[in-house]
Amino acid sequence: MVTLRPRRIRVVCWGSAIALVLVFSLIATSLQGPTGDGYGTFQRGDQFAMVGLGVLGALAILLFTRPRVQADAWGVRVRNLIGSYELPWEVVRGVRFDRGAPWASLELHDDDLLPMVALQAADKDLAVEGVRALRRLHQAHHATPARP
Hints:
membrane, elongated, PH domain-containing protein, CFP-6_PH, 4-stranded antiparallel β-sheet, 3-stranded antiparallel β-sheet, transmembrane helix, transmembrane, PH-domain like
């Protein structure tokens, strides 16, 4: 079994999520006293709301760490930002990683392309090795005799 996940985007997203929560927490601690020239004042609930907004923003950023590709002798499972696909090798024509493409994709027999966001060009050698591993599994599946 081969499991592939992006590396660089995960590091960037985790760092950004932590920084966002810290910034919103610092802003929350500064929310004290009057709101300006009006009669309103910042309350404890306003501070909790700011921290909550930071956590929600961090969770949105962490969605970008979701992509994953798992492959074995049976087929390939692709999980992108939104949506997951489970495909047997019989429906896959090839594994593509075109020059200049942001990520690899699966070319299907019905001429569709299924993007694999987990294999990003930003990861360079890691992505290339991942594509090679998927191509080996794909070729090994087609090299075995048909099952009854």
